[in-house]
Amino acid sequence: xxxxxxxxxxxxxxxxxxxxxxxxxxxxxxxxxxxxxxxxxxxxxxxxxxxxxxxxxxxxxxxxxxxxxxxxxxxxxxxxxxxxxxxxxxxxxxxxxxxxxxxxxxxxxxxxxxxxxxxxxxxxxxxxxxxxxxxxxxxxxxxxxxxxxxxxxxxxxxxxxxxxxxxxxxxxxxxxxxxxxxxxxxxxxxxxxxxxxxxxxxxxxxxxxxxxxxxxxxxxxxxxxxxxxxxxxxxxxxxxxxxxxxxxxxxxxx
Length: 254
Ligand code: ADP
Ligand code: MG
Hints:
This protein is an alpha/beta fold. The chain contains ten helices and ten strands. Strands 6-7-8-3-9-10 form a six-stranded mixed β-sheet, with helices on both faces. The longest helix has 15 residues, at 142-156. The protein binds adenosine-5'-diphosphate and magnesium ion.
């Protein structure tokens, strides 16, 4: 059974069609890269699945309609990193990460079970935040804030990660680290990832499958090597993508 199954997903704003019948599914161990030019509808997919925008079509998690789950049940299965997150309050890094544990103890998340403490400590360590655990999140750099939300997801420990540009704001070191972390996280059976990724080289290096969107429509979907053909990419981005990539790479060859 698919961990996540999306069928005929449609989103409209007024008379504008933003997603026009998108289909995909996530199987165990898979990492789907959602790619496409600005405004293609990538974030809208993430927002629809996480019930942030109205849609028609089917979104199933482990075969069950996503709308039929209670919030904390769903949170144990699917963790979402949205493209924009706002922090209105001056929580500490540690308390924001601990919110990820709410999925496991709704209503009494401050109880401080050992299992929760371990999950939080591990997530902080993985994302390099241990030293700033007591810092106010309103004072963080963009990259530190991004890592705080990723740590919250690792603490939440769902079966599916849905990530919208997870390495936005991150420098090269953390970019690499986050992609490696997710790859390692995926090695445990029963997990899958779907992520919106701008950098096509990174997407190709880490993804197993890809969904290439253009103007809310699926241009190509399947194994990443098939989707990332020069013809598909050139048509989506309206430029010679592989020539551009090779040109960039050539600068580094000695
Ligand atoms: P992507 O993440 O691929 O860059 P988005 O999913 O954010 O694209 O947006 C897809 C399209 O939907 C864009 O043209 C955007 O302007 C439009 N859009 C997003 N949110 C709204 C909204 N609330 N009202 C009207 N149009 C919107
Ligand atoms: Mg987006």
